[in-house]
Design brief:
Blueprint: E1 2-11, E2 14-24, E3 29-33, H1 40-47, E4 55-60, E5 63-64, H2 70-76, E6 78-81, H3 93-99, H4 109-118, H5 120-124, H6 135-147, E7 153-157, H7 165-180, E8 184-188, H8 192-198, E9 201-206, E10 209-215, H9 216-220, H10 223-238
Parallel strand pairs: 3-8, 3-9, 6-7, 7-8
Antiparallel strand pairs: 1-2, 1-4, 4-5, 9-10
């Protein structure tokens, strides 16, 4: 579905992505793990055409993403739920969701009901301003807004950031449900053990490069990944303890 080859991205004179290559298969959850500053969010912004690339290839369902505007990227089937939630603070929940469908001309009622099915609390808050929502509700709104475009591929950037553990589990269960209904997921997540527990494929990024690619289950039992990213939770998963999400 998505192929990236030898992608190079700069912020002024600082190279954020270095000859990065990866692919995402239709129907899967693929996750990117790595330390802060490794280039994970930069990759999603580059795919969305929010940030320009310097050289390299990005192809989605046969389309050259490097030639598209951000709006055209959404129209071709990619939605981005950015890091930090980024809701429209002075718009209601309903208005925020409707903004997610701005590239479409078709009726949005079914899409709204789908979002409310995933996130019932949003239906209770439809007339509430985005800035008045809790952090968890804002995260739900960000993902819901991205779903309103009917994406084939959704880019999720740190969906668990700043959330209580019980809500993190809920968010990851919803991501799995979204995927089961046919939406491919590319997930950036600091909570590596949770991300690998729901993904099929994982990529480890360090200083703008993919240094390791494997199935998520193999990465969980990889000693280097365990030591660098998984900690005690990873040790439990490696030994077969604990539930996968």
């Amino acid at each position: 579905m998505l192929t990236i080859k030898n992608l190079n991205v700069f912020y002024a004179n600082i190279q954020a992505l270095q000859s990065l290559t990866l692919s995402v298969q239709k129907g899967e959850i693929a996750t990117l793990i790595g330390a802060n500053g490794a280039g994970k969010s930069t990759l999603l912004k580059t795919l969305s055409r929010i940030h320009p690339h310097t050289t390299g290839e990005m192809e989605f369902l046969g389309l050259d993403l490097t030639q598209l505007s951000p709006a055209q990227v959404v129209k071709c089937g990619i939605s981005h739920a950015p890091e930090g939630r980024r809701v429209f603070p002075e718009m209601t929940v309903l208005e925020n969701l409707e903004m997610g469908a701005y590239t479409r001309e078709s009726e949005t009622r079914e899409d709204l009901e789908r979002v409310y099915r995933f996130f019932p609390v949003l239906k209770e808050r439809i007339h509430q301003m985005g800035e008045t929502l809790s952090g968890g509700e804002q995260q739900m709104l960000t993902i819901g807004r991205a779903l309103m475009a009917r994406p084939k591929l959704i880019l999720l950037d740190e969906p668990s950031m700043g959330l209580a553990p019980t809500l993190v589990k809920t968010i990851f269960e919803i991501i799995q449900s979204i995927n089961r209904e046919g939406t491919t997921v590319l997930l950036v997540e600091q909570n590596a053990s949770m991300a690998l527990s729901i993904a099929q494929t994982g990529y480890v990024i360090e200083t703008g490069r993919v240094v390791l690619q494997d199935s998520a289950q193999n990465l969980i039992i990889n000693p280097k990944v365990q030591e660098a990213y998984l900690g005690k939770r990873g040790a439990d998963l490696r030994k077969g303890k604990g539930d996968r999400v």
